[in-house]
Amino acid sequence: MADRRWFVNASPLILLGKVEQIELLRAMAGQIAVPGAVIQEVSAKPDGARTIQILGALEPAIIVDDEVPPANILSWDLGAGETQVISYAVAHAADRVVIDDLAARRCAKAMGLAIIGTLGIIGRAKVAGLIDCAGPVIQRLRETGLYASDEIVQRLLREVGEVGESLEISRDC
Question: How do residues 70-79 score in pLDDT, each as one tens digit?
């Protein structure tokens, strides 16, 4: 199940840290790479130091130096973290980038990168048996700042078997 190398942006780290699910990254990726710009962004958050500490404890996690972004990525005018994640992933053949920002996801797709976001991690974790239920984790993520439309959440919950076609939530969760 584990892809070899994932390059992770700030929002998934922050959100997964807030809901105490950051270890899912370790369970799914052979190696986690985080650019310095992302570390700076996470560190600036009120609970960022705790997230960085947890990240440091994840054995395959490495902090990588920032890249000089190529013009084709700079032209997307993304944030520093997103720019670095995508630049590093392109330069170092990432198996996947972990990004939530829609514009950054579009850029990553244009660069030919495989993408997963925070919700995708939760969905994969449920399917792999790493968490019992995705719904409660997604609810906590939304309460701590994840924006995801009801439609996207319902689709994911349906895909992992927690919501039927009638949108009734499974009693197992």
Answer: 999 999 999 9
The Cα–Cα gap between 5 and 2 comes to 9
Distance CA 137, CA 124 (A): 13
- For 52-72, write each residue's pLDDT tens digit: 777 776 666 788 888 899 999
Which pLDDT does position 152 carry in this prediction?
94
Q: What is the pTM of this model?
A: 0.88
Report the phi/psi class of residue 69: left, alpha or beta, with left for phi > 0 and alpha for psi in -120 to 50: beta
Sheet-wide strand order for 115-116: 61-64, 29-35, 3-8, 96-98, 115-116
Does domain 3-116 bear CATH number 3.40.50.1010? yes
Contacts of 170 (CB under 8 A, 6+ apart): 161, 162, 163, 164
